[in-house]
Hints:
The structure is a homodimer. In chain A, helix 3 links the parallel strand 3 and strand 4. The longest helix of chain A is centred in the last third of the chain and has 15 residues. Chain A is globular and about 45 Å long. Chain A is an alpha/beta fold. Chain A is built from 8 helices and 8 strands. In chain A, strands 1-4-3-5-2-6-7-8 form an 8-stranded parallel β-sheet, with helices on both faces. At the A-B interface, helix 5 of A face helix 5 of B.
Amino acid sequence: MNNFKVIEVKQSIFENNDKRADLLRKEMKEKKTFLLNLMSSPGSGKTTTLTKTIAALKDEMSIGVMEADIDSDVDAATIEQTGAKVIQLHTGGMCHLDADMTRQGVNELGVEGIDFAILENIGNLVCPAEFDTGAAKNAMILSIPEGDDKPLKYPLMFSICDVLIINKIDVLPYFDFDMDKCVERAKKLNPNIKIFPISAKTGEGVEAWANWIREQVNEWKK
Amino acid sequence: MNNFKVIEVKQSIFENNDKRADLLRKEMKEKKTFLLNLMSSPGSGKTTTLTKTIAALKDEMSIGVMEADIDSDVDAATIEQTGAKVIQLHTGGMCHLDADMTRQGVNELGVEGIDFAILENIGNLVCPAEFDTGAAKNAMILSIPEGDDKPLKYPLMFSICDVLIINKIDVLPYFDFDMDKCVERAKKLNPNIKIFPISAKTGEGVEAWANWIREQVNEWKK
């Protein structure tokens, strides 16, 4: 039996999403909770990456997860097994979360004493890129099987992310994926983007990514 | 140099999308052009599948392709090499196509004498499921690396499709993908869905899928 809460988040009635996102970010700064907005296509390995990330960090910080989905709660059930605090957000068909929907999630999760909160956004490379959620940083996952041309096709997503995790590097030999080309295309859109090639399945590269989180969480408390 | 047209489709101002979709479908029936709406996540292999499908069918029917994308025209450039008639539709950030946007594409493509027209929809499992494009049939691609749980997470998409193509079966040994579970989950949502496991890369299974197209194109002309 699952113990996590399932929240139906309502579409925001507020027009000025950017202002509301800034306000949420400011409040999260005061509460010393580093909020990460994690985005990707369906099936790129967000939940598996999260599971490994939580395993790497849970002994040194308090972690809370908001799993957003159109429907279903399979991801929250998986994350619950890591021991992290987790709630499931249902968007009722909406393809993204905005700042006010994120706030509804933050209120229900309760971030008092949480060092690192993660919003696992809807699996979609289009709509979530258009809405500032109020997170401190944005990260996206691109997986090897999706192809190295994705920066060309979803430029906004690559432009607004602080971090690009390139996942499933364990299957690199079986796909026509040119890592150099992918990195070059991402950097052309976003010269400052940090790139972490990982395999969430084997754990390869996860430590470097976890180190980045450690730095961010420490920085956010200052 | 590419020779295909690039069309900026405008968001529809019409409220009754279902009615306009029915109207487009009726007109396509009169013109004897079978229009297929092809949907999937980014990177599931829509364009490679299309390339192989066109290769299998181009000697027996006239084929036209509308490549929809937020931005870029890499897919249209790939399809152009197959010899099929192709245009690129840009949605200006929109995450789906509705019936009127499809009509703008159909008008620009020109379907006179085209037996089989394909709309390659935006790579997204959420929004395109919500809008009837006016196509005769809907098909979706799920690829092995995306995982067998996708019917649980994107139920609407699986519910509205006539066909589910399960692509990249050549990499099945390298992923934890339970084919039986995936089929069971899809059929639970949509008992009549036709399922074609294929590898667009190796060509395995493409003939069965091409046969389905042959039947549909013939049926549509009656």
